[in-house]
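In response to reviewer comment 3 from the previous cycle, which asked for concrete evidence that the modeling workflow produces usable outputs, we include below a single protein chain processed end to end. The sequence was submitted unchanged, and the resulting structure tokens are shown without manual editing.
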Amino acid sequence: MSRQIHWVVLSDGAWPTEDIYFYESAAPILRQQGVLTERFPVSRSFGAARLHGPSFKRRYAGVNLLLCRSLPLSWLRWLERNRNAFGYIVYLIDDDIAAAADDATLPSAYRKRMAGIASLQPRLLALADEVVACSDQLASYFTPRHANVSVLTPSLLAPLPSQTHFTANPSSETPWQIGFHGTRAHLQDLLHITPALEALQQQRDDTELEIMLGQHMPKRLAALPRVKAPAPLPWQSFQQYQRQCRLHIGLAPLLATPFNQGKSFIKFLDIAAMGGVGIYSNRYPYTEVVRHGENGLLVDDDLTAWQAGFKQLLEDPAATARMAKQAAIDAQRVGDSLNASWFWQARSERLD
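The workflow returned the following structure tokens.
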């Protein structure tokens, strides 16, 4: 490269998205190749863009910008006025924001926040030279709305653990660890399989559920024996927790809603990062990475299918351990940060 290409993440706080798709996956590799990368947090306080914009422009004139999910309105207006001062602009998105705003099953505060982003999204698209989506399905939403749409699937950031937690024979003293680590946006997905979880906990005494919803834990699940409900964690704290937590079985229910159709297979990587094998809804995006019975289970939406999935994994520990091992191998392959670095390197070289 004849000169250093400079990428700046203009960050509105979507750190998980920024890190998974660029800043902790591709950026460290790009920096080794001489490509400069930085993250610039933008403030939502009144007048922040007017106050900090001129110094940002002086420092970063001509650089390429990465916008993730959203920008404060003041910064969006400022960037629209100063668009010609910067190079290539990429809009990175990992959710169908408009579908989230319209989904009555989601928490009202979340819907309101998504509606605010959705109202500004056409302006973000107008600023961008390229839209990068987390899945083919989400990309298909943006294709009619932008002339240049690409797909970048998520990267695995956590180191893969050993499988030593599978060596002990599960019992009431050392129970099977079963976990759901989705956000409140997946509460309805969890509630759908709650009867299967109730039956599981009532029929066995060697299973322990961890559901990371804290005070938002559904009462039906909180009333069950051997259930833990740790509070949701900020992104960096969750990354540390993920490196310590060990699962045997991870839960990834995903109902057929417009919002869920735009999801990536990030839960496959999350479950593998905690050493587990997942039970996944038998639909996209999990059908892209899960091979039923080899690196996880794909189950239909009916409760008997989820109960059969639990039975299959719990009654054949050796086969479950083999699936978890294969899931780790596949997560390393599909989530290799080199994939993200090649993606961004191609854009850096094209701009050189």
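Residues 108-127 form the longest helix (20 residues). We consider this sufficient to address the reviewer's concern, and the full set will be provided in the supplementary archive.
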